[in-house]
UniProtKB/TrEMBL annotation:
Protein name: HMA domain-containing protein
Keyword Cell membrane attached: no
Lineage: Eukaryota, Fungi, Dikarya, Basidiomycota, Pucciniomycotina
GO biological processes: copper ion transport
Species of provenance: Rhodotorula graminis (strain WP1)
Keyword set, alphabetical order: Chaperone, Copper, Copper transport, Ion transport, Metal-binding, Transport
GO cellular component: cytosol
Amino acid sequence: MADSTYKFNVKMTCGGCSGAIERVLKKTEGVSSYDVSLDTQQVIVKTTVPYDDILAKIKKTGKEVISGEVVVA
């Protein structure tokens, strides 16, 4: 299965918030890369994992996901 790219707008207020998301993505099998930006409040994930599964993992950190989309390459 080819990698998909997902972009999420996530409410993060500190380095601990972005760190929690980074830790959960690092442990997720099928995630080839990710970029968590506290400045832009964005999380970009390249993965073979379905969108809903990645969304659930981010929400499990307790952070509010304001919006999310599948980025078409």
